[in-house]
Sequence to fold (286 residues):
Amino acid sequence: MVSGYLMPGILMRCIKFDLLKLVMLLKPLKPQNRCICCRKTNIKKSKEHLFPQWLIKKTGTDKTTIQWLGKWLPPLSCTLPICEDCNNEFNKKLEQSFQKIFSDLESGRGISDNEAELLVRWMWKTYGIAWCVTNSSDDYTHTYNLRERALYPINNMRGSISIAISLIENIDSSFSGAPMGFDSVNNKDCIFVSGVFSKIAIMVFLDIFVEEIPSNFCIYRLFSKRENFGYIKTFYPKVGFKTCTDAVGITRLCSIRLSELHDNLAFELIGLAQNKISKKIIDYRI
Ligand SMILES: [Zn+2]
Fold:
């Protein structure tokens, strides 16, 4: 019998609010049949997998579950309603190239500057779609929508973007499949993205935060503009983790700090934009 338990009004309101928030987190937002990537309305919807099917099969997670929106779900069932055009363009311009880039990295063949940019944009796209489901896609960036960020060539902030990659020697038996998930926890802007996928740990970050990257990772900074020789392979990441447990643990830990640093900068830039002080906006154009 708990009816004698008196709950203060303020506490009741907090619980109601938390429940509402929880329901919103569990249920993907569907604002007026609008695509979360291009923001167009009255679209023809299609289902984009949270993680591509080839990666799900590669990591063996088609036989297990992943944690998403507070539930453990089979990754093949985790789909997002985006418009058919965005889905097709992402597939044509990012997904097919990224699959090859992934294979080259994993087998030690290395990547070029052009491929490094595609990797950055694949990370932004894949993490960004999941981010927009649990946040307002209006807040994705104050310059681009998700489709533009993922499909446009990177603008004048190109030379400020770096990637950190570490290969993993072994998938330890504590994993039922191989790892597949993001570790970044941004509140506002999505420049910083990190995650571990099969035997590769990846982080995309602003180069000013390079000191925060653990020594397990090899680092590559994009050329400040695309070059004619940008197709030549120049980045050959090494094995920096013995096991995927180490890789996931360290990537997750440093991602907390890196997410916070990038968030703080994003909030600072928004403040500067509101005050019409545009020096840093011109520098980064986030
Ligand atoms: Zn769209």
Observations:
- The chain has one domain: 45-276.
- The chain has a mean pLDDT of 82.
- The chain has seven helices and twelve strands.
